């Protein structure tokens, strides 16, 4: 993986994490404490988004 691919991957990861934070209610909590449930939701969501993106990317190779 070259530098451009690494930057693209990092950028996508950051975007996916932001979407997942909203979906999992991380940003809506008043005290911004990451609970175990929020953390598991965030991890599953981010992994799902990355896997889906890779499948789409592979389909266009």
UniProtKB/TrEMBL annotation:
Coiled coil: none
GO biological process terms on file: protein transport
Keyword Nucleus set for record: no
Domain Tim10-like: 2-60
Gene Ontology annotations for the cellular component aspect, listed alphabetically: mitochondrial inner membrane
Bilayer disposition of the protein: Peripheral membrane protein
Entry comment, domain topic: The twin CX3C motif contains 4 conserved Cys residues that form 2 disulfide bonds in the mitochondrial intermembrane space.
Subunit relationships: Heterohexamer.
Role noted for this protein: Mitochondrial intermembrane chaperone that participates in the import and insertion of some multi-pass transmembrane proteins into the mitochondrial inner membrane. Also required for the transfer of beta-barrel precursors from the TOM complex to the sorting and assembly machinery (SAM complex) of the outer membrane. Acts as a chaperone-like protein that protects the hydrophobic precursors from aggregation and guide them through the mitochondrial intermembrane space.
Name used for this protein in its record: Mitochondrial import inner membrane translocase subunit
UniProt lineage: Eukaryota, Sar, Alveolata, Ciliophora, Intramacronucleata
């Amino acid at each position: 993986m070259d530098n451009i691919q690494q930057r693209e991957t990092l950028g996508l990861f950051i975007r996916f994490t932001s979407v997942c934070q909203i979906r999992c209610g991380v940003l809506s909590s008043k005290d911004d404490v990451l609970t175990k449930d929020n953390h598991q939701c965030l991890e599953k969501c981010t992994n799902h988004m990355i896997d889906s993106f890779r499948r789409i990317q592979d389909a266009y190779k």
